[in-house]
Amino acid sequence: MNVLRKRIAVPMLLTMALGLLLSFAVTDKVAYMTGTYIYASPDGGGSLCSEMSPCSLEGARDKVRTMNANMTGDITVLLRGGTYSLSSPFELTESSTIHDSGTNGYNVIYRAYPEETPILSGGQSIPGTAWTLHDGMNNIYKADVGSLQTRQLYVNGIRADRARGETFPSGFARTSAGYTLPSTGSFAGMAGWDNIGDIEMVIFYQWKSLRCPVASISGSALTMQEPCWSLLAPATTAAYPTWVENAYELLDEEGEWYLDLTGAVDGNAGTLYYKPRSGESMTASEAVAGSAAETLIKGTGTLDTLLHNVQIHGLTFLYTTWMYPSGNGGFPANQAASYVPPGGGVGQPPAAADFRAAKSIRLERNVFRHLGGTAISLEYGSQDNTIIGNVIEDVSATGIKVGFITGEDRNPADSRKIVKNNSVQNNYIVRAGAEYHGATGIFVGYTDHTVIEHNELYDLPYTGITVGWGWSTDVTTAQNNVIRYNRIHRYMHTLRDGGGIYALGNQPNSTISDNYISDQYYDLALVYLDNGTQGFDVHHNVLHNDGTLYWTYVTAIAPGATLNTIRDNYTDIPQSSINAGNTVSGNTYSSASSWPLAAQTIIAGAGIEAGYLDIKDIIAEQPTVPEPSYINAALNKTVTASSYWDASMHPSKAADGNVSTAWASKPPYTSPPWWQVDLGSAHPIAKLELVNRQDNVDHVYERRNFDVLASNDPTFSTYTVIGRQGNFSVGYKQTWSSLVDDPTPYRYVRVVKTTEIVTLVIAEFRVLIEP
Question: Which structural domains are found in the chain, ordered by start?
């Protein structure tokens, strides 16, 4: 639907040539001098595993099992180019009976044949010949996909959107069981839609992106699916969904798709519908859906027999899916894309490359793209592993995950379960969190001596790197963690209350240093030490932003972050909030246009090192997001308000260009207070900014629960919601902002309190339009 499509989800992916992907195999030619080599190909078979008679991938692994008991050199499995279609994971195992490890200090290496690209794929292709025109008026095509079940579709290398409605739909009202539908508009008739049980409500709650299916609709009463709905608390306090998703009736935007499993739309079950993007010819298009496999390679040992000395080099991992959120449990997200399963505990999206009880594993120069879950995971006693030089792009959940957050991870009874001494370096992570927006680029749970260094993270909906868990100062396994020399930019563009680097819990002898972090969109801080964080030395970082956030936030909220050192950092951001009980010294405030030499040196040293810079070529063109040249259409325009405190806080103070003044409403209130601006003429609105009061008064209720309405009627008898802040306060002295995609020209804009009838204060409200 196109009433309002606000860019709060994921920026449109750029068209990328498939040929570029296929050209990124092994960039270094290897002179094979010693060791043993066996061969696999997508159509291989038998047991010879020679170059002339290659085996299947599983056959090559089985061949290794006959050769690795007492190795005298590396065994290399060379994978010929092409697609290895997997409906279940390729498994590497070390146990009392199965042995896939290297021995005597030598490695079993699975690597791409020189200059070729082997692809491990869980996808189902839909060729151009499968598509027929379904609805000529609306340019919707369809294809028979049989028993396919998926949550992801990629057309010509670009992730397509499941059909969804406008952002912040008006008229929904929350009930204990779900919602009351709007009385007017397209959602008023949802009871007559097809496949009601497939519809999902997507709810953003600050740092969470939650999904819950609809159970039924009777009249205007929409009942949400259990147990998902009960597990969403407290996010169900949101009075409305952020958007409605996965219904044929919502298929009206280019690049959207819908999968009809029942045949309710036109009588044919297993029909995929797609509305092409401008310029796409479906008969010449290549579409692939994530299909059967949640994990593509699974490495599993035991605490007694770790899987060890295995290397994965130069492979491409594509097209996993994860169907759990489509079930009754939905996706009741916790923090960092973990979720609450029925019965309690904690769950996580599966990883394309998943290693447990693994040691001395090396993943190098692989590509992870178009995945329905996480890319790489190390858990359960994994130690001394290296993840280096990989490209991770367009994955639904986390880029790289090291360790996890269960009670056993926190303080295991058996110390062999501790995840320790792992290294994540020189990886390029772009557009993680494409579906589960609370995911982070790199996630570190309860671990000992994890080193995260020289990575570049870009275009993320939430936090760049998160380390630790627990909201507590308790002693856990977390210690000695190092985050250094990373480049993190253009992140936090969808959710809130995160940062470039986010730490949580007591982690003695840990370090955040020499990182270059910039272009954080939403709050809170570029370096964020949350509840209970202790033991960090935060030093020699360069932190650059537009000045509306904190350069660092070291929380005072109990249990506060204490016993950390914040020293010798460089920033052009004037604000910080550092709890008492921390050591602060030598931090430099400077203009980004004149960084001191020491800051310039840090900037030059952050990110991917020279030996791995070529991995960035896998992405044809890094999406650039130039800052538009906006005009503030509200500046010095005619304003009105429901009331004002006194002459010094007149309504005009919120549109005078001076953030040191402010408008404030005056009690008592019989209706929600509001402030309104007349732009003089109607304009399409690109962006909204609300600057909160800049004095020393800190009332959290002033900075939450408001809507921004737009209308061409000064009485607002009809209006469109173009911005919304829920039940979580914008940061003290910070600026709330929101992009708007509704192309309708509006003359009048109003800010109004919603669920709390309390004082509203605005230092400056900007209605930004393009010249």
Answer: 128-290 (no CATH), 371-618 (2.160.20.10), 631-769 (2.60.120.260)
